[in-house]
Amino acid sequence: MEAERKEVLLIGPLKPVVVKGLDAACTVHKVAEAKDRDAFISAHSHVRAIACSDTRESIPGNLMARFPRLEIVSSFGVGYDHMDVKWAAAHNVVLTNTPGVLTEEVADTALGLLLCTVREFCQAERYLRAGKWLRQGYPLSKTTLRNRTVGMVGMGAIGQAIARRLDAFGVPVVYHTRQPRHELRYRHYPNLLEMTRAVDILLVIIPGGPATQNMINAEVLDALGRDGILINMARGSVVDEAALIKALKEKRILSAGLDVYAKEPEVPEALIEMDNVVLFPHVGSGSVHTREKMDQLVVDNILAWATGKPPLTPVPETPWRARGKD
Ligand code: 8YV
């Protein structure tokens, strides 16, 4: 006899890999197709699994609470600050994310953003397109990676992939995390301000959420100093955006390269108007290749659960505990 098809509620865009993968094994209820989202959710409150295909869909506790039998939320993205982890942990709901498959892509992007910011490549390209090269060469970039040290804020898998690239570039790396990673040979600073005073580039790659909210504030930016460059590959929430704009305007730091913002996709006009910042539209993992791998992992976590196996990549706060048959 064919095993019962599990029901899954899909929240977020109907991405082909996610839809095809889930449809093949489960009965999928697609919120994106609902005329009335709220009524649709109420009508499917019996489901035990949710798939979330975009980090821009927030999964608060009061949404999960509408599914009394919920066991798993399989989300797209390595970052999971869009989900209420505390609520899930307290209610024995497993949250999964998509780590690993995007590590190298995000590290590549970080290096691209860093180089563009330090060597003004985006500005130089705009200069050529504006026909200015015909009159005069682009001015020499004010800065270089050659005499700089990078202070990493965060040293998880992506941080380490970035550090490996910087090693190959011959750029010294130090890092700040709460706990030192003894297996790494980079100097560890338990104190963020102390590290920031010792470096001239801060590269932020830590999880978002309440614990890191506005961690890069005016005091940190002042410690970075007038030659300092901030690169944010983490979450907009980690940087006090108003303080950053003020520091850039007052030239208390030199420049910034940002892939993430406080209220995406809105980017403050003040940043857009500045020529000494490089602004990427949150493209860290944004290649077809890597996004498909992330989408597939969303599916594979659900498929593992649906066949009674432990999900592949639960977040550390919500480990899988086997449940009895219902
Ligand atoms: C995506 C990300 O770019 O994985 C994450 O946590 O931030 C990125 O890989 C983002 O989810 C796009 O919405």
Overall description:
It is a single chain. The chain is α/β, with parallel strands linked by helices. It has two domains: 6-101 and 289-306, 3-Layer(aba) Sandwich (Rossmann fold), CATH 3.40.50; 103-279, NAD(P)-binding Rossmann-like Domain (Rossmann fold), CATH 3.40.50. 35% of the residues lie in helices and 15% in strands. It is built from twelve helices and twelve strands. The chain has a seven-stranded parallel sheet, sandwiched between helices.
Please describe the structure with a list of short key phrases separated by commas or semicolons.
binds 2-keto-D-gluconic acid; Rossmann fold; 326 residues; 2 domains; seven-stranded parallel β-sheet; alpha/beta
